[in-house]
Amino acid sequence: GLADLMTEGAVPSDGKRGDLDTMKDKAAREASFPLDIIRAGLNVTIQSGNASVESDRIHILNSIAGRDASELGEPPHETHENYDQVNRKLRAAFAVAALPQAVLRNKVEEMGILDIIGRDHMRDTLSLYLGSWEILNTDLLREALATMSRLTHLEVDFWEI
C-alpha cells in the first residue's frame, strides 16, 4: 500500500501548487493520516528529540540556544527561550498542514489547531486551505490571527465538501 503523507503544501502528484482543486486532491490524499500522529506533531518539543548520534543532538540544541562554538559539546539547557520559539514554529507548521484534515474530521477545537497556529508570533505569511467554512469556528480563526502581529500576507481558501 501507499504510505500516509501529510505535507504543508501540495506535492507533485497533487498537481500544480496553489490551485484550489490541487488542495482538494491533497486533502483526499491525507484523509487517512492517523490522528495520533497529528496530535504528536502538535505537541513536539525539540529538547525531547533524538538523533542517531547523541553528540549531534547536543550540538543542535546548543546551536539553537545560541551558545558559542566552544560550548557546543556542553550539556544542553533543559529549557531555553529559543527552544520555545522553535517548538512554536514546528507545531504551527504541523498545525497548518493538519488543518484541512482537522476541519474535515471536525477536530479543530479539540486539537487546538488554530491556537497553535496563533502562537507562531514570528510568522509573516500564512496560507490556509480548508474544507467547508460551515464547520470551522471563524471566531477561533479570528482570535488566532489577531495574535500574529508580524503577519503581512494571509490567504484563506474554502471549498465545499
Q: Please, how many helices?
A: 7
Overall mean pLDDT score?
Answer: 87
Helix content range of the residues, please?
40-55%
What is the beta-strand fraction? 5-15%
What is the tally of beta strands? 2
| Side-by-side strand order of the widest sheet | 1-2
User: Would you list the SSEs in sequence order as H and E?
Assistant: HHHHHHEHE
Alpha-carbon Rg, integer: 18 Å
Structural class, judged by helices and strands? Answer: mainly alpha
Please give the alpha-carbon distance between the first and last residues: 26 Å
The poorly predicted ranges are none
Structural shape:
globular
What composes the largest sheet? 2 strands, parallel
Protein described:
With 161 residues, the protein is mostly helical. Helix content is 45%, strand content 7%. Strands 1-2 form a two-stranded parallel ribbon. 22% of the residues are buried. The mean pLDDT is 87.
